[in-house]
UniProtKB/TrEMBL annotation:
Keyword tRNA-binding: no
UniProt entry tagged with the keyword Repeat: yes
PPR repeat start and end residues: 220-254, 255-289, 290-324, 325-359, 360-394, 395-429, 431-465, 466-500
Record's protein name: Smr domain-containing protein
SUPFAM superfamilies (alphabetical): TPR-like (SSF48452)
Residue ranges of every copy of the Smr domain listed in the record: 614-696
Family listed: Belongs to the PPR family. P subfamily.
Family matches, as InterPro entries: PPR_rpt, Smr_dom, TPR-like_helical_dom_sf
Keywords annotated in UniProt: Repeat
Length: 711
């Protein structure tokens, strides 16, 4: 007779999570801790052997396939519901071991290892194929017929996996398939696709995938991942999204590589909302993002300058206990720089150091760029000292970034120490960009003697001269009125392969405007003629008083259209300066009109109800003086017509902190004094103010015909 057993079990019941559709696999621990529990006492009687509580719980836990069953209906396009093509097999999960970050349900199964005595011959044959060079397909096909053993499944797979060039892989794959000795399995397509992905042959990969669908060959996780990543490498973002959605509908779960790749695709496509939606959906399905995925998110928010998005990435990493690696820190630092947050970038860098990670060259370069952009010279120099003390890695890019920062801020002594340190280092000798940065520093500071000495040292060291270095030196020598040295530097640079660009031509034009003697101007004109003959012809046309305005207008249009956009306004500025230097004021006004007419001076005039302003911050000294005179003429005509005027008039020259705009405010102030104009310096640097009554009175005294017309 069976013995009746009575048991009593205490169970902690949570009513909030009693729904069988909400499994603990997708629940957050924090939610469980916050919920209240109820303790129930359950008694039962049974004639059978009683089960333990652990056995009861394991028996009632749904299988993993049942848990993932609703996933097939969740796609990127929620309005479409597609039937699952392949049902995942039931997988038992051991609760005592941590869950995998991504469940790869249908990866390619590995066959059991078996020794093949033909491996040595087949590898030698594959090496022969790799080393062979062929111009026609028939030549390579002839070599394939020399295979030492029959091309059965294992032999063919070994040779296919050993080929390096994608062209040979594709030919061999078609050759094996044409023999039809065995059915082509998924693994053959995967191996061939990976080789084609290396060659960025997406069209061939897509054709293979469609062939697999047509022939009934199963596409597994590796197949889809290869297709998506290849489309990403080929910048075919629409195709990558198309195949990802197709993969999602089949019920396959993407792995870490696929998720990171498709997130990057959405990011580069500018689809920020889609990235966040996919990220949240992937996390909800059990995917744990890795450092690469967070790097993609940080880069996306950084390119958009979205500081809140960067903070979101940092919070997500902390909540998921993902420790950033150096690549992630580099991406986030660059993002902080684009968002204009130097202080937060410094804090992030300190956090990286405290975590035990050592920065690499990219980390330090990104931080130096941020400090340089924010003009944090002290922090940048402290970072440099820390680099030397801790012997952090430094390369050409990092050294040159530091030098360029010193050039932008004007730190001559610090740049010289850094340059000397670069010479003493074993692996980072100064290159062309290093010398160019130093020439830029000396040129901005007017140190012509040091610049010439450095140029000679550069030639002796055999360092290639670039056009930027030549431009900086020409500008420095032009300001110092050392025209003979300028001509020598220009000829030497051209002989060493420098091709003058529009920026160098603009620099020569500015030197011509500074020349006090006709002989020096002719020397500079000779250099300019070797760089741009059409520009020299136009200069001669402009300074000729007999040239009609319509002729100047047509030729001006041709010259400007043939010039790079960033050099068009400097060209016009220099031409105005040349005309003013030759006392051709009216021609200067004509050129200013043409520059305004062709859109070279946007924002020159600004009007509000209370004030009118003249913004000359982008003009040269001569062009700014011409613009002021033209503005006064226009205001005189307005006074003559007795139209309404604002209470305040402003003239803005800027503070002169930029190296190419130094001295503009002082020259503009001197010109105002010569005209006796009622503009006075305001509390803001580089701003001159005049009241309406004072300006009208001055205009009436400056232009006597106004009095007669008003009488």
């Amino acid at each position: 007779m069976a013995t009746v057993l009575s048991t009593s079990v205490d169970v902690c019941f949570n009513p909030q999570y009693s729904d069988t559709k909400k499994h603990s696999l997708f629940s957050k621990p924090s939610c469980l801790r916050q919920s209240r529990t109820r303790k129930l006492n359950i008694s039962c009687s049974s004639t059978k052997q009683p089960k333990t509580l652990e056995e009861e719980l394991v028996t009632k836990t749904p299988s993993l396939s049942e848990q993932l069953k609703p996933l097939s209906a969740t796609t990127l396009r929620q309005e479409q519901q597609t039937h699952v093509l392949s049902k995942p097999k039931s997988v038992w999960v051991n609760p005592t071991r941590p869950k995998r970050s991504v469940l790869s349900l249908q990866r390619q199964k590995r066959s059991a290892y078996s020794y093949n005595p033909q491996i040595k011959d087949l590898r030698a044959f594959a090496q022969k194929l790799n080393s062979s060079g062929f111009t026609e397909k028939s030549e390579f096909l002839a070599l394939l017929n020399e295979i030492p053993h029959p091309p059965d499944r294992d032999n063919s797979l070994l040779v296919l996996n050993s080929l390096r060039e994608w062209q040979k892989t594709h030919i061999f794959f078609d050759w094996v398939k044409a023999k039809n000795l065995f059915p082509m399995e998924t693994i053959f397509y995967n191996v061939a696709m990976k080789s084609l992905r290396f060659g960025r042959q997406f069209q061939l990969i897509e054709a293979m995938a469609l062939e697999m669908v047509e022939d009934g060959v199963e596409l597994d996780n590796i197949t889809y991942s290869t297709i998506i990543t290849c489309a990403k490498r080929c910048n075919l973002y629409d195709k990558a999204i198309e195949w990802f959605e197709r993969m999602y509908k089949t019920g396959l779960m993407p792995d870490e590589v696929t998720y990171s790749a498709i997130l990057d695709v959405y990011s580069k496509s500018g689809k920020v909302e889609e990235v966040l939606s996919l990220y949240e959906r992937a996390v909800a399905t059990g995917w744990k993002p890795d450092a690469i995925a967070f790097s993609v998110l940080g880069k996306m928010f950084g390119e958009a300058g979205d500081y809140d998005g960067i903070r979101y990435v940092l919070q997500e990493m902390k909540s998921m206990d993902v420790k950033p690696n150096v690549v992630v820190y580099n991406t986030l630092l660059e993002a902080m720089g684009r968002a204009g947050k130097p202080g937060l970038a410094r804090s992030l860098f300190n956090e990286m150091i405290d975590s035990g990670l050592a920065p690499n060259e990219k980390t330090l370069t990104a931080l130096v760029k941020i400090y340089g952009k924010a003009r944090w010279a002290k922090d940048a120099l402290q970072l440099w000292e820390e680099m030397k003390a801790k012997k952090w890695p430094m390369d050409f890019i990092l050294y040159n970034t530091l030098l360029n920062m010193c050039a932008d801020i004007g730190l001559e002594e610090e740049a010289e120490r850094l340059f000397d340190d670069m010479k003493e280092s074993g692996g980072c000798k100064p290159d062309s960009f290093s010398y160019t940065a130093m020439l830029n520093i000396y040129g901005s500071g007017g140190k012509a003697e040091k610049a010439m000495k450095l140029f000679e040292e550069m030639l002796e060291a055999g360092v290639q001269v670039n056009v930027m270095g030549c431009t900086c030196l020409v500008q420095c020598l032009g300001k110092a009125k050392r025209i003979d040295d300028l001509v020598s530097v220009f000829e030497t640079s051209v002989q060493r392969g420098v091709k003058p660009d529009d920026r160098l031509c603009g620099c020569l034009l500015s030197v011509m405007a500074l020349c006090e003697s006709g002989a020096d101007a002719e020397k500079v004109m000779g250099c300019l003629g070797r760089a741009n003959q059409k520009l020299v012809a136009f200069v001669k046309l402009v300074i000729d008083e007999k040239t009609e305005f319509e002729t100047v207008k047509e030729e001006f249009k041709l010259v400007i259209n043939g010039t790079q956009v960033e050099a068009r306004r400097p060209f016009c500025n220099c031409l105005i300066d040349i005309c003013r230097g030759k006392k051709q004021q009216e021609r200067a006004h004509e050129l200013l009109y043409l520059g305004t007419h062709f859109g070279l001076y946007p924002g020159l005039h600004n009007k509000t109800v209370k004030e009118w302003s003249l913004d000359v911050r982008s003009l040269s000294v001569g062009a700014a003086e011409t613009a002021l005179e033209e503005w006064m003429r226009t205001l005189a005509n307005i006074v003559r017509r007795q139209e309404d005027l604002p209470e305040v008039f402003l003239a803005q020259t800027g503070t002169g902190t930029h190296r190419f705009s130094q001295g503009l405010a002082n020259s503009f102030a001197s010109h105002l004094e010569q005209l006796a104009a009622p503009f006075k310096p305001s509390d803001r640097a580089g701003v001159f103010v005049a009241k309406r009554e004072d300006l009208v009175s001055w205009l009436e005294s400056k232009f006597p015909p106004l009095v007669a017309s008003q009488a």
